[in-house]
Design goal:
The protein is mostly helical. The chain has helices at residues 10-26, 33-54, 65-75, 80-87, 91-98, 106-116, 120-125. The longest helix has 22 residues, at 33-54. It starts with 9 loop residues before the first helix and ends with a helix. The model has no long low-confidence stretch (mean pLDDT 88).
């Protein structure tokens, strides 16, 4: 029999997400059956709250190269500064490209491919 678990406020959502992450950090092999069941219940409730209240959509399709780069930064928990260092470009240059004040040059596009392993088709689709 599956329990009902309802999230009704942003605070309870936040608390549930913390509990989910704490269980996930234990590692699947280290979870007891009851913890696995609880994790499933909390995950379903969190997804429902995200869909119905927060209106979070599954991964949105980027509309521009800066969107692709910002998505990469988000997924890899990188700041603009760290990304600039990783790409071997100046921080002002990256900032200008992300804000649309500057067009990416060939060396920048090559760095996206070589240093971030971004799909070349994805890069070219947005240039």
């Amino acid at each position: 029999m599956e329990e009902k678990f309802l999230i009704s406020t942003d605070k309870s959502y936040h608390e549930t997400m913390i509990a989910i992450f704490e269980l996930m950090n234990k590692g699947e092999a280290n979870l007891k059956d009851e913890e696995i069941d609880l994790l499933k219940i909390m995950t379903v409730a969190a997804e429902k709250y995200e869909d119905e209240v927060l209106h979070l959509k599954p991964t949105m399709q980027p509309k521009s190269l800066p969107d692709v780069i910002e998505l990469f930064m988000f997924e890899n928990k990188l700041s603009q500064s760290k990304l600039a260092d990783r790409l071997g470009v100046g921080k002002p240059k990256l900032s200008q490209i992300l804000t649309g004040k500057r067009k990416p040059d060939v060396s920048f596009l090559k760095a996206l491919y070589r240093k971030l392993n971004l799909d070349p088709k994805t890069i070219l689709d947005y240039v």
